[in-house]
Each structure stands twice: as C-alpha cells, then as structure tokens.
Design goal:
CATH topology: Rossmann fold
CATH class: Alpha Beta
Pathway: Quinol/quinone metabolism; menaquinone biosynthesis; menaquinol from 1,4-dihydroxy-2-naphthoate: step 2/2
Helix content: 25-40%
Catalytic activity: a 2-demethylmenaquinol + S-adenosyl-L-methionine = a menaquinol + S-adenosyl-L-homocysteine + H(+)
Order of helices and strands: HHHEHEHEEHEHHHEE
Enzyme class: transferase
Strand content: 15-25%
Distance between the termini: 35 Å
CATH architecture: 3-Layer(aba) Sandwich
EC number: 2.1.1.163
Pfam family, one: Ubie_methyltran
Radius of gyration: 18 Å
Strand order of the largest sheet: 3-2-1-4-5-7-6
Number of helices: 9
Largest sheet: 7 strands, mixed
Bound molecules: S-adenosylmethionine
Length: 259
C-alpha cells in the first residue's frame, strides 16, 4: 500500500507507468520500510482489512491456497493461521526484496513456517491449471501491468469451484469523506511517506495516481466476470476506502461435500 514510484509523477491524463521493471524496482526500494509505512499511513486499518478478507475465505482441507503479489507476506501469514495443516499456503511475488522480508517473518513452530514464498510474475504464474482452492491478492492487482491478464492467470490456477479474492483500495463515494480522503491521499500521505522513508516525494504520489486510475466497485466486478468467474460480489470496507471482491471459478471443488 505504501507504493512508491522512482520516477516523476504522471500529469493528469497520463497513465501511470506500471511496466514490470519499474514496479519491481519501486518495491525493491521501499521493501525495508513497507510494513511500518503501511501500518502508519493506514492507521493500522490495513490489518483489519486483511483480517476481513481471510474471514471470508472458504477453506477446505487438503487443497493448497495461493496468495499472489504477496509482498511481505501478511495476507499469506493470516491465511496460514486459519487453514489446517493439510492446506499448503504459497505466496508469490516478483520482487525478491519483498519476499526476503516475508521469508524472515515465518515463525518456527507456527503455521507461518509452512508457507512457501516464491518469485513469480502474476501475469505468467508457474503453476498448472486448476491447482489452488483459493487464489488471493491484496493491494497487488493494481500494480500488475496488465490487470486482465493477472485476473485470467489467477482464474486459470484456481480449482473449479474455488474462490478468487481481490482486496484493493477503492474510492469512497460519500460526500465529505471523498474530499477528505482525496486531500489525505494527495497531500498528507506523500509528505509523511517522504519524511519516513527519506525518498523522493514523487515516489509517494504513485499510490493516489494508481488508485485513481484503477477500476473499483462494479467496474472491477465486471472485469472479474470477464475473466470467467461467477457469483462475483464486492463488499466495501471502511466507507469504501478499500473493497473486497470475490468470485468463484465455475465447477465443483472436490472436497466441497466433505468439509
Ligand atoms: C502494495 S504491495 C502488496 C503486498 C501485500 N499483498 C500486502 O497486502 O501488503 C504490491 C506487491 O505486488 C507485487 N507485484 C506487482 N506487480 C507484480 C507482478 N506482475 N507479479 C508479481 N508481483 C507483483 C509487488 O512486488 C509488491 O510486492
């Protein structure tokens, strides 16, 4: 969430540059500060958002779960705490520096010790079709260069009957909050980010720009439907500052009748 861009910010009308090298380098730079900035800039609400996402996951024994764009691994760790030991949890990301932090967070003797973190581009996931019962992404899809390709890949590796979940920033629509949020995002957040991470101010302008240009609400749900998912629904959190999107891959999960 505390995404930062190393190059100049886009002017209105420009598309944010989300090429793989740029996004990977951006996260390499901010990796050491990512967790503390996340918690600070969201006033710790990011933890609540991830907990709500995990609460909504339908987890059955014996089938693995994939968390894509896992970053420093917080969602994968929360999932591992909810899943029983027969469920392998995998976290994938294309930024080595973020994954190194995720690996260091695994706690011997705790469910997190069972998570495998591996380097992979979400647009070409190195997994067979129909592998995972749940495929998740938190605050990551917005950064993937080709959103639809990312969604198609998540859907491809999901088991028929399995669940696909996206947690992402969205734009609150409530009058007053919309303006306050816009002001915080555009003016306060970049300054705090610069101060704490001692980075270029423009680096912290990536977040509002990328959120502003990313589909939310029904528009995002429509993209998930277009990727082949059914029963797509979305739940705004914290007055719509973030939203959980859920969809199901058509078919029947092998263990559904057994759980
Ligand atoms: C804002 S962080 C989110 C991290 C984590 N999911 C969380 O909830 O805090 C976005 C992550 O997406 C990763 N990412 C962006 N584009 C990617 C891609 N095409 N393939 C794999 N990872 C990608 C970045 O490296 C970064 O770690």
């Amino acid at each position: 969430m505390t995404d930062a861009a190393p190059t100049k910010s886009a002017t209105p009308g420009d598309r944010v540059d989300k090429s793989n090298p740029r996004v990977r380098e951006m996260f390499r730079q901010i990796a050491p500060h990512y967790d503390k900035m996340n918690h600070l800039l969201s006033l710790n609400v990011d933890k609540y958002w991830r907990s709500q996402a995990v609460r909504r996951l339908r987890i059955f024994p014996n089938h693995p779960i994939l968390d894509t764009c896992t970053g420093t691994g917080d969602l994968a760790i929360a999932i591992s705490a909810k899943a029983d030991p027969t469920v392998d949890v995998v976290g994938s990301d294309f930024c080595h520096a973020m994954l190194e932090i995720a690996r260091d967070k695994r706690d011997p003797g705790k469910p997190s010790s069972r998570i495998s973190f591996l380097e992979a581009d979400s647009q070409t996931l190195p997994f067979a079709d129909d592998t995972f019962q749940c495929v998740t992404v938190a605050f990551g899809l917005r950064n993937v260069a080709d959103t639809d390709r990312g969604l198609l890949e998540m859907t491809r590796v999901c088991l028929p009957g399995g669940q696909l979940m996206v947690l992402e920033f969205s734009q609150p629509r409530m009058i007053g909050l919309k303006q306050a949020y816009g002001f915080y995002f555009r003016n306060v957040l970049p300054r705090i980010g610069q101060w704490f991470a001692r980075n270029d101010k423009s680096a912290y302008e990536y977040l509002p720009e990328s959120v502003g240009q990313f589909p939310d609400g029904q528009a995002m749900a429509d993209r998930m439907t277009a990727a082949g998912l059914i029963d797509v629904r979305f739940t705004p959190l914290t007055f719509g500052v973030a939203t959980i999107y859920e969809g199901t891959k058509p078919g029947i999960l092998p263990s559904q009748g057994l759980a």
